[in-house]
Amino acid sequence: MSKKSFFFLSGTIGVLFLIAGAGILSADQKYDIKAPNGLSFNDIKGYEAWQVVAPSYRTDKNEVRYILGNPVIIEAYKKGVPKTSPAFPNGSILVKVAYSEMKEPTFPPALVPDKLQRIEFMMRDSERFKDTGGWGYARFVYDSATDAYKPYGKDASFASECFQCHTLVKDRDYVFTKYPVR
Ligand code: HEC
After folding, report:
1. Is the CB of 96 under 6 A from ligand 1?
2. Residues 149-154, mean pLDDT to the nearest whole number
3. Residue spans of alpha helices (H) in 30-151
4. Which homologous superfamily is 35-172 in?
5. Nearest protein CA to atom 33 of ligand 1, as residue
6. If residue 10 lies in a helix (H) or strand (E), which one and from where to where?
7. Nearest-5° Cα angle at 84, 83 to 90
8. Ligand 1: which atom is nearest the Cα of residue 98?
9. Residue 162 CB–ligand 1 contact under 6 Å
10. Gap between the Cα atoms of 177 and 169, Å rounded
């Protein structure tokens, strides 16, 4: 190999490492983004592998979603909460992952996820979040063009908007999603 092509090759490899490194960084950086109330992806670390509680579909937003639960809340659901006990235990977390929909090109009657829209979660800490029913809320809006997340809400009061609507299901401990038979 000539000296020139050696330098060219090592330069190219260096640039490739830089690009790969930047990719890894941006995936990690998502964990540092904080909602205005301080909650972040760090609070739901590992959620990608959590169990599905149930899917849902918003006819007015044309979005398909799935709701994930951490092991604490899955165990509680299995024990029959919120029917058998009025409250999910501290440490319970639910994550909602929402996508725009598209028709499966090879089989159009099937609606499937298209682009990720946002990730939001609620976590139970009855002391820390006592102003919002014992649940802390956070939402991160995803922009697929830049592969970046933006926290939702101007200040910490955004959570009262979440809480208000979730109060519709106060008798189910503010949780809409039920754990269906599987
Ligand atoms: C106008 C009503 C409304 C508002 C406002 C709202 N939600 Fe919800 N949320 C719902 C409904 C209805 C569901 C049931 C599942 C679905 O819609 O996909 C839900 C489900 C959820 C779930 C899954 C657990 C459950 O209760 O089923 C999470 C997590 C969640 N919302 C977080 C938030 C966060 C965070 C905010 C505020 C940034 C928020 N929600 C604001 C109506 C609302």
Report:
1. yes
2. 98
3. 71-78
4. Cytochrome P460 (3.50.70.20)
5. 162
6. helix 3-29
7. 95
8. 18
9. yes
10. 10
